[in-house]
Amino acid sequence: MPMDLRRLHNATVLASERNFTKAAGKLCMTQSALSRSITKLESELGLQLFDRNPGDVTLTAVGKTFIERAHTLLQHAQDVRCDMALVRDGLSGNLVFGMAPYLATAFLSAVVGNVLHEQQGVKVRVEVASREQLLNLLNAEEIEFFLASSSQLALGAQYLIKPLFKMGLSLFVRRDHPLASREISDASELLRYPFIGAVVAPSHLLNLKFAMGLPSNSNFQLTVACDDFPVLKSLALTSDAILIAPHMALGDEYTNGSIQSLECVGPLKILTNASIEVCIVKFSNRVLSPAAESIVELLRTLAGQVR
């Protein structure tokens, strides 16, 4: 039969006070209730823990051994309670989740930095991979959730896809690109140059064709489709390629002007004023851990700061 921790606590207080009246007062219970608690405990153990004398209560020899063990058990219970409180508040525990490459470029450094400074008790591992790889990791239960663009998600009912925030999407070129620092009103000017970006769903490519006034059966494709964003940025900096990317993922290259947003006007303005919806993907019948909830809330905050 499981041992009642409250009765153990009552016994340790009685052992300390050596008086039922004093111990009952300290425990905020009646003397008779304390007496019943100790009697039930002794009955469960089949041992007498206390010698009851008028005005004085002393431990038996076996009672002394029991109280020593009880103190240890109660301390362990308190430690478990404290540990679980840290887990509940997202300040402790283990967390493994995944991010698509664009999102990792935009947010991973800030997320890791927050953990190092604010959530040192949380052990975090982040898998950066394509949507297909992340889904495989989720199915293998190697990650708790992952973040990806909603345009690439078409999953079954066993998954929950929950929108988190939107990321601005635009066209970018190197600082001395022929199209930099001028207004673009004709798609033919754009089509003189190769387009590069992440691997996208067919629907995304169709939307891009529509925005440039191309027929749906046009053979337009990305010249380079790659999920390694540092490679894409390097290509944009060293060639005439037009990079399709979220603003957040460009970092220092955009801040210092090495990479600039194209200025499209008229019907083409949609190309530089688009957005992608970022979603969290997890099993629909699973509840996120407190540490995961904390990271998700941090991502919402970070996204709100740069929109």
Account of the protein in words:
- The protein has about 300 residues and is an alpha/beta fold.
- The chain is built from 11 helices and 13 strands.
- The protein has helices spanning about 5-15, 20-25, 30-45, 60-90, 100-120, 130-140, 185-190, 200-210, 230-240, 250-255, 290-305; strands at about 50-55, 55-60, 95-100, 120-130, 145-150, 160-175, 185, 195, 225, 240-245, 260, 265, 275-285.
- The strands form 3 sheets. Strands 3, 4, 5, 6, 8, 9, 10, 11 and 13 form a 9-stranded mixed β-sheet that branches.
- Helix 1 crosses helix 2, helix 1 packs across helix 3 and helix 2 (about 20-25) packs across helix 3.
- The model has no long low-confidence stretch (mean pLDDT about 85).
The residue ranges in which pLDDT falls below 50 over 5 or more consecutive positions are none
Report the CATH C-level class of the largest domain: Alpha Beta
In CATH terms, the superfamily of the largest domain is Periplasmic binding protein-like II
Tell me the overall shape: rod-shaped
The amount of helix comes to 40-55%
Largest sheet: 9 strands, mixed
Q: Roughly what is the average pLDDT, rounded to an integer? A: 83
Named at the architecture level, the CATH assignment of the largest domain is 3-Layer(aba) Sandwich
Radius of gyration over alpha carbons?
32 Å
SS content category: alpha/beta
DSSP helical segment count: 11
Order of helices and strands: HHHEEHEHEHEEEHEHEHEHEEEH
Oligomer: single chain
Share in β-strands = 15-25%
